[in-house]
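TEACHING EXERCISE
Course module: macromolecular assemblies
Task: Read the component lines below, then compare them to the predicted structure of the full complex.
Student: A.B.
Group: 4
Components provided:
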Amino acid sequence: MQILVNDERHDVTAANLAALLDELGYDVMARIATAVDGSFVAASRRATHSLHDGARVEILAPMQGG
Amino acid sequence: MTLFYGTELTSRLMLGTAQYPSPEILSDAVRRAGAGVVTVSLRREAAGSRAGQAFWALIRGLDVPVLPNTAGCHTVREAVTTAQMAREVFGTDWIKLEVIGESDTLQPDMFALVEAARILTEDGFKVFPYMTEDLVGAERLLRAGCEVLMPWGAPIGSGKGLNNLFGLRALRAHFPDVPMVVDAGIGVPSHAAQAMELGYDAVLINTAVAKAGNPAEMARAFAMAVEAGRMAYIADPMEERDMAVPSTPVIGQAVL
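Instructor-supplied answer key:
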């Protein structure tokens, strides 16, 4: 299945968002937030959030800001 | 005492965390400023990158309340989703809501701002809207549930100070009980003092400190200016006059 993660194409086998983070190598303890197709997906709902071919996933982390 | 959504800050100086030469200098600046709040943001992070986690560890070590922003958002949807992501990452329902409408000036899109503020306050957020000094827009934001307003002084990063003194005075006078923060455009401590003398409750500074030759020293200068400006406001400044009035008494003056 092809999905876009932070605007980069990935060929993955993960069926849901939690599995995707694991497959891509994100640390389970990392302080990150996720969105799929422009909508926020809470950490508690990642395991039940199914991914579809062409899904647009955003993975964000803390950064400096003004 | 000024309460921002029920919270009294330890200082009326809010400090941005971007553009410092190093994390150490950022930490020094926040300490020297005695900042009441630090603003933070969210960006894409690749697997294996530790940048975001390292920054978060640094911020937590500073022990200052964080105000996440939605910088870079141009639509209601982007801003709302970013706010929801920020709430989870930073563990706060405070959000500095930015919806940019124009790229050259980074001017807020007041129409989208009001709509995003309404959605977020209904979702339990405590919204700090980055706005122009527009009175009608302010009224709409308050009606949308905002309890704090953050008018710009000048375009973000311009350092031009308070571009529209009349507008900022009018805004302050129209909503005397609403906590208000001048955000953006302040370049030097005298600009910050001026905002506080007008009766604004706080100022938010980033570029002016981060891009100073000595950020930590400049942070301290801003802290002193904010305190001086606030004291001056409380002390009730004299009225400005167009003509001279002698300060030395003329009664009893010798005729020579």
